[in-house]
């Protein structure tokens, strides 16, 4: 690990200003992703700004009946919160399907959204990777691609986004709240927050330099049966091969977002419109543009089967 300096931010605004004024600076929250990357020198910030002491760890109801989740709310606390379990069960289940109890105790809402890909070539600093080093090339293309994206990828990067929580938040239409260094607040729909790789896979979100996530808000509850189903190589402590986050209403209509298939949580209005017709029709639209490799074409069939299981489960519970 390279040496770095450290400060504890004293206010949200000063944290944003400090980060904007120093290109070497990074925020640190739970540290469960950033420190791993620093140990491998994939990330080497010269300065860390600790944003834990800023009071961003509260949860409160919004005036329209939704829920405002502070950026520093720990994954454990979010999953266990009574309102989340009752009204947004999907989110609670997605969080509990991720990482381990110890990690969830440290991991935060903002940090989870910003965790970086688990592409093995990204972690192997001996291998070219456009995400680590723009213009270097992509070792995954033509390499081992079992874990990689089947849709929305580019010639520069075929990595997936690893977060379970973000997939549930996409299905729930969450909004990311931020503060810019100039003092302006932004509200970014989660659909627009993560970017597809294109030619710039190292730019992963629409956040600007120094922009600090302060909270994530959920709209008022929409009822329905909430299901998160994650398929992985091991029963626990593994990232998703594919995941399905769904809210299904009694009449069969609902919402579906996929994890493990793209560079961001994957959701399409046209696919949701045919949800009452079943998993085959919905998957055909969701993954209609899929360009899998011979190693990960199984993901298309796996999504359809997982979604079929989810819809059966919803029928049984409604
Ligand atoms: C062994 C292991 C298994 C895991 N398994 C899973 C899994 O199955 N599913 C899953 O979803 N996740 C999994 N994770 C990932 C884990 O969920 C993330 O590491 C964690 O959520 C990151 O949160 P953090 O608070 O520790 O972020 P940090 O490591 O502190 O930060 C991550 C990034 O977010 C930035 N950041 C943090 N807070 C802010 C803010 N407020 N505003 C702007 N930028 C900010 C940091 O600068 C950094 O770039 C696993 C991790 C490990 C180590
Ligand atoms: S898929 Fe993306 S993260 Fe993986 S090696 Fe290629 S450029 Fe790097």
Describe this structure in words.
The protein is of the alpha+beta class. 30% of the residues lie in helices and 18% in strands. It has 13 helices and eleven strands. The protein has a five-stranded antiparallel beta sheet with strand order 4-5-8-6-7. A three-stranded parallel beta sheet has the order 1-3-2, with helices on one face. It has a three-stranded antiparallel beta sheet with strand order 9-10-11, sandwiched between helices. The longest helix has 20 residues, at 298-317. The model has no long low-confidence stretch (mean pLDDT 97). The site of iron/sulfur cluster (SF4) has 14 residues, from helix 8.
Average pLDDT works out at 97
Report the bound ligands by name, code or SMILES. flavin-adenine dinucleotide, iron/sulfur cluster
Total number of β-strand segments? 11
How many helical stretches?
Answer: 13
- Category from helices, strands and their pairing: alpha+beta
Order of helices and strands: EHEHEEEHHHHHHHEEHEEEEHHH
User: Which spans have pLDDT < 50 for at least 5 consecutive residues?
Assistant: none
- How large a portion of the residues is in β-strands, by DSSP E? 15-25%
Main β sheet profile: 5 strands, antiparallel
Order of neighbouring strands in the sheet with most strands: 4-5-8-6-7
In quaternary terms, these chains amount to: single chain
In whole angstroms, the N-to-C terminal distance is 52 Å
What is the approximate shape? Answer: globular
């Amino acid at each position: 690990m390279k040496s770095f300096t450290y400060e504890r931010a004293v206010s949200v605004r000063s944290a944003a200003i400090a980060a904007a004024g120093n290109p070497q600076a990074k925020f640190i929250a739970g540290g469960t992703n950033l420190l791993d990357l620093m140990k491998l020198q994939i990330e080497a910030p010269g300065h860390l700004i600790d944003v834990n002491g800023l009071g961003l760890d509260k949860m409160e109801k919004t005036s329209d009946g939704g829920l405002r989740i502070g950026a520093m709310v720990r994954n454990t606390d979010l999953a266990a919160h009574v309102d989340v379990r009752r009204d947004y069960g999907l989110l609670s289940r997605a969080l509990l399907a991720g990482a381990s109890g110890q990690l969830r105790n440290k991991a935060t809402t903002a940090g989870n959204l910003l965790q970086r890909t688990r592409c093995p070539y990204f972690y192997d600093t001996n291998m070219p990777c456009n995400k680590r080093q723009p213009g270097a090339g992509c070792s995954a293309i033509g390499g081992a691609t079992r874990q990689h994206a089947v849709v929305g990828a580019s010639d520069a990067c075929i990595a997936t986004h690893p977060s379970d929580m973000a997939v549930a938040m996409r299905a729930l239409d969450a909004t990311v709240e931020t503060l810019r260094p100039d003092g302006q607040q932004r509200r970014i729909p989660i659909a627009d927050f993560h970017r597809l790789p294109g030619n710039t896979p190292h730019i992963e979100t629409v956040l600007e330099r120094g922009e600090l996530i302060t909270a994530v808000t959920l709209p008022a509850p929409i009822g329905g049966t909430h299901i998160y189903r994650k398929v992985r190589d091991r029963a626990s402590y593994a990232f998703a091969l594919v995941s399905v986050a769904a809210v299904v209403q009694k009449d069969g209509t609902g919402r579906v977002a996929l994890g493990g298939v793209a560079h961001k949580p994957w959701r399409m209005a046209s696919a949701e419109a045919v949800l009452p017709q079943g998993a085959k029709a919905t998957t055909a639209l969701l993954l209609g543009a899929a360009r899998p490799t011979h190693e990960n074409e199984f993901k298309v069939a796996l999504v359809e089967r997982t979604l079929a299981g989810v819809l059966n489960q919803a029928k049984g519970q409604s």
